[in-house]
Amino acid sequence: MYNRAMVHQIRPLTEDLVDVVLSILAEDSLSNIVLIADCTQLKEWCDVRVLMEDGRIDAVFSLYSDLDFLATAFWCRNVESLQKVMADYSERLVGKEFVAICTKEQLDQFGKACVILKPIEERQMIADRTTQLQCDCKAKPVRLSMEDAAQLKELYRLSGTPAWTPNAMNLGPFYGIVEDDGKITSVAGVHYVTPFGTEIGNIATHPEHRRKGYAAACLKAVVEDVLERSELAILHYYADNTPGQHLYENMGFKYSEADPVYFVRATCAE
Questions:
Q1: Of the residues 2, 102, 104, 244, which has the maximum number of CB atoms within 10 A of its CB?
Q2: Domain 8-122+262-267 CATH assignment equals 3.10.290.10
Q3: How is domain 129-231 classified at the CATH fold level?
Q4: 222 by DSSP, 3-state: which?
Q5: How far is C-alpha 15 from the geometric centre of its chain's CA atoms?
Q6: Beta 142-143 vs 261-267: how paired, if at all?
Q7: Total-model pTM
Q8: Cα separation of 29 and 151, whole Å?
């Protein structure tokens, strides 16, 4: 008897691998929802690679490049597999900062494969087709389009929302409150839409129009729309965002089985 060395191969995510990868990620879709999106709707902006050991998928890693910062997502069977697949990105990751959203288990794995600079606790909440979202605001949000992108860019600048790109307008619904003069004063939209779940985000309200319930109205409109095509509406907020916590809890969102998660800034050493 002898121990045969494991033969590993790193491949780009090609169409023949997508269904197999998704079947693995779907075993815990809430923990892997960002990577699911990177492998499906966001694939054109992602460099996704698959580590295979003797024909078995042992790790999947994605590098998303449509934002002003590098964003990553991953799944792995063990830390060694994660280290191997990340080494394949060394030219793009070494000496650079990048971010990820991780569960506690993934955070521990990530910390052994790279240098964690700052983990920030986030909460993950969900709504499904049985959820009765509450909103007292009488203002009626309207569906926005790419023609509104310039206004939204300014609104997001005013509200300090960094993770927005105009391409998001083509990924799923955005709803906004539009004043009589045509000015958009509040908005909610999506980060991605998948059959397993849609992440709601890009929520912003003009500083002069806060405390009117506009965000709740826009959020409710987006959720009702996306649940026609997706099993779950998912959102994340920083754990210290008390106003956000009260808003989402009062509306009727529930904490997910993957909660809490962590927004992580990291780098790879030389």
A1: 102
A2: no
A3: Aminopeptidase (3.40.630)
A4: helix
A5: 22
A6: unpaired
A7: 0.91
A8: 34
